[in-house]
Give the backbone structure.
Amino acid sequence: MSKLNIGIVGATGYTGVELLRLLAQHPHAQVQIITSRGEAGVHIADYFPSLRGVYDLRFQDPEHADLSQCDVVFFATPHGVAMRDAPALLEKGVKVVDLSADFRLQDVPTWEKWYGMPFTAQAALKQAVYGISELNRAQIQQAQLVANAGCYPTCVSLPLIPLLKNKVLQDGMPIISDCKSGVSGAGRKAAVGTLLCEAGDNFKAYGVAGHRHLPEIRQTIALFDEKLAEKFIFVPHLTPMIRGMHATTYVHVQDNINPHDLIADFYSGSPFVDVMPIGSTPETRSVRGANICRIAAQRAPEYTDNVWILMSVQDNLVKGAAGQAVQNMNLMCGLPETAGLSQVALLP
Amino acid sequence: MSKLNIGIVGATGYTGVELLRLLAQHPHAQVQIITSRGEAGVHIADYFPSLRGVYDLRFQDPEHADLSQCDVVFFATPHGVAMRDAPALLEKGVKVVDLSADFRLQDVPTWEKWYGMPFTAQAALKQAVYGISELNRAQIQQAQLVANAGCYPTCVSLPLIPLLKNKVLQDGMPIISDCKSGVSGAGRKAAVGTLLCEAGDNFKAYGVAGHRHLPEIRQTIALFDEKLAEKFIFVPHLTPMIRGMHATTYVHVQDNINPHDLIADFYSGSPFVDVMPIGSTPETRSVRGANICRIAAQRAPEYTDNVWILMSVQDNLVKGAAGQAVQNMNLMCGLPETAGLSQVALLP
Amino acid sequence: MSKLNIGIVGATGYTGVELLRLLAQHPHAQVQIITSRGEAGVHIADYFPSLRGVYDLRFQDPEHADLSQCDVVFFATPHGVAMRDAPALLEKGVKVVDLSADFRLQDVPTWEKWYGMPFTAQAALKQAVYGISELNRAQIQQAQLVANAGCYPTCVSLPLIPLLKNKVLQDGMPIISDCKSGVSGAGRKAAVGTLLCEAGDNFKAYGVAGHRHLPEIRQTIALFDEKLAEKFIFVPHLTPMIRGMHATTYVHVQDNINPHDLIADFYSGSPFVDVMPIGSTPETRSVRGANICRIAAQRAPEYTDNVWILMSVQDNLVKGAAGQAVQNMNLMCGLPETAGLSQVALLP
Amino acid sequence: MSKLNIGIVGATGYTGVELLRLLAQHPHAQVQIITSRGEAGVHIADYFPSLRGVYDLRFQDPEHADLSQCDVVFFATPHGVAMRDAPALLEKGVKVVDLSADFRLQDVPTWEKWYGMPFTAQAALKQAVYGISELNRAQIQQAQLVANAGCYPTCVSLPLIPLLKNKVLQDGMPIISDCKSGVSGAGRKAAVGTLLCEAGDNFKAYGVAGHRHLPEIRQTIALFDEKLAEKFIFVPHLTPMIRGMHATTYVHVQDNINPHDLIADFYSGSPFVDVMPIGSTPETRSVRGANICRIAAQRAPEYTDNVWILMSVQDNLVKGAAGQAVQNMNLMCGLPETAGLSQVALLP
């Protein structure tokens, strides 16, 4: 079986290097083209020393790279780029996994409000499938364009989806997701706020007045219950570590319902969602480098109402970004869902 | 003015060394006795190299140390010790600040349930004043025994107290406090779970099935509203940093009420509570080493009900422990509340 | 081809879990037995959550585990255990890779001096091959017992070996190796000194008055030059990170010799030693999780004599321990040297 | 006694905020003017939240700030600024402490070679005193302009000075200083290399081909022995922590000389240099936030020649920058050397 020919647009960031790490070990895919405007001509091994001896590739100028020869192109770019460049690739039959936010929101005015620019790829948007693999597995298998889900939306939605699908959440009560992310979620750009001396040994909330992942998560909730979507509250925090994301989500469940079992049942056939036994607490390091979302659920103690605490962890760069992108590629291309994704978490 | 003669029982832990750091610069207090069963005879400078040149003291065996000569004794011990040893000191007129949990809960069965041992100091408990300085300033000024509040209870209660006092929270709705602590909260004992290689670059919840600070915080809420106390949900998390605590507390507020202003008004005369302008997010490092609880409040965005997000940060070893203990000592001894507590936070 | 049947003695530490991570992806080996006295009966997934879904194994009591059925047994134990238990396995034809120090020093009195206990396995010692794979590749291929090299000795020796072999170091001048290790080198045992709050945000030397890896490195140098071995100075330091080791080694080289080229030539056929171009500086993270020792060399600037600075990095748990152990197993068993060791470093 | 009127030029960096922290508690000094081109008009509390409630100052545009009214002005700026602006202040009688490198090297061609720009303040240079307080205490007391020493030069020079002064180092043998710095040494500027995700959990050398502090340290050695200055080798490393610096310096000492005692004697009257007992190893955290250089010395074990390992630690932002600057100000202004510098190190 010949290998898929892969291109990566914008391979200088953390999701880019993570795609390269994962695809290096993929049995059915081979990266052929990587692009970067700023680093055109530079050898990947000079840019990312972790890839010395792994790839013999140089960054190409995106203006001149012939991405149409690829079977699959990943966009690991800021928003706005895939919207501009993906449609031409789609026309030529290339499959596209967009790791940016361009095709995540189906409602154009909402997208334009949160991303602050005009949306210009309506035709492509119509065919885009939202890329939480476990939510849309069947559609992704048929898709030519997948909008890889955001890191927070993946981590928050996975434990919620089985409860929403089973309609066991109480009407009118809040769904509160208090989320914590490692600093790599902010990307690999020069900025004061993510310096080691600023973000290290420090904890803070951010985006409290409104974060772009709020409408994305609400869109997923609304697939099941539009009213509950409006009851969703989301506060992200920055935690002083490189990788890892932890969502703590507080839900009001109908009487006599045990959400743990519903979640465990729902994901019994999903290789990358691991539901722990009752009484467990997941740790972010248990999934460091691995394409896994690990979930535990616990009823709020000493509390009269049936409130549950859903804890979900993932590596924000893997199941929250590049890993799920490869998982989606596998689905799109008819490969085994787990191909190239058997990395064991790095602990300690 | 002669200096207060200070004793510290159990000075080998993190709250002990922090008391020593703060009291070294106190204009009206001098540490005369430090005790430790395991380290009796050892010079403090050999134990804590940060104190070389600062103190010329050796640990004394608690059996032989004459703590009754002290004006004030701090217990920086595991629970059970102050309960056993403080009553004799109180009888001799010594003032006691207990940094352990022994005298924090006024309901003995509740204490015994959560701490798993019989409570044996009922007489002392009757005179104990709960030591959140800003909550009980007047009573602390008259107290001989102060039960220094826990770290989480201080951080969570401070933003809640003004709202409870003003009775502006909605009945029947949950108060959810999602808390994050640096690892020093777990103390300075040999344990696998708090090794750098276990707790570093990792984030997790703990005590989800029930944490001892839950009844302590509920006791404070119940001072104002017993029903709301039962609606309090608390989940602590461990974050990979040494010092610092962040509470994110979600409250349902009555219509047309702005909790930010109530909190700011309430603490206008409190030197160690800093309420930030609307739109701010406090950072734990902004109080590293300083006796400050810094608070911000933000209305939940895109939400129909009047839900507010209260963010409060403190150094868990200072305002969350040793700093508040000194603050309480100042109040008990008629000293200026700020004496010895003007350390500026260490940033970066 | 059937898979090798693997046993791991003492699989509860960091080298144990790292062996399990690496062997999970090994195409020709399968772990069948893991032992632990303290955790007998516990499922590996309950002990190391990173291994949930990867292995279905329980720790066995070492007294009852039938390790003689294994093809290869790894000892990931404190010193003293392999010395006691390996000889019986060797007699039954089992191949043994000892990750402890028991068989590293060929001189028994030296071993007894540094390890403080009697040495009792002289017969086994005679057949032990010292396990720096690149130093003793041919002998390891014939060996039944390999004494896997220490972490510092591997990192320090690899850049030195080509210079020693080529006899280009100046007589009588010191070889100074200033080494820095991540905290995982201290193992996974409850201890105050390696708590996050003690070892975090802190840097210090340790073992300055004498570290057990000093005689081990000198033994390797003495293979080439006994006098130079006595000129070797070694100071290890603890750096606040989980994994990673950096050796900075200062050597006096004979005039007109370029040690960079000698090192690069020597390792041209070694898949796990990467020599960077002149002017580079290796980073520990570039090998995080990968079985690579990455080396750079730089002439001391503005200096009259031909002094060179050799910089070498490795993941102390991989090329410094479990990865090299698997590499040695591959050599011992006639497998491709790289089998199961193609993990790409995790960056960031 | 009226307080000294202080100005700080370039107060937005880490040495700036550290000066502000230290001077807030200084009994004889008051900061009146802070300048920043980029942040003119911004309140210091909005820029550094750690200073909320500590200062009521706004950044002034350096073009319009009247620094000539100050008694002392600190330059916490990149090189080139003090060279341009200090001379006018000196003419008006203002005392200047320059924390940048402008006046550190007395040899102008050397300065121009290493700093890559023309040097234009020869007159001021003639009166500049090099500001290692313990080296030049008497001259600093008379100085109007002090060139505050670099962080590495302070940490490396302090243990060497007594040995150089006593002429006990062997001729012709190298002095090798292997240094490790926390990331704050790189300053508070947006840069990829010092992001938490790049510098965290990572260790590397840098500046191996030549670092600007090499000629600065050699200049100090040459005060005592010009030939030995040429034998000095210096390699700095970046260690994943915020504050702290550790120098490990290897020296060849003449027979029968014990450098530990020479160092201890030399600093017996120096309040900010602490020499530990033989057998100790200093930790960077033992001086976190404190104006102390802590030193230990150990003879190289198992070595025939009299080689000693000098270990010195400091907080790079305090004794390595702002603290020493205040110490120098105290000396220049006839204040007690320790005024305002009694902060106890923050441990943990």
Residues 151-165 of chain C form the longest helix (15 residues).
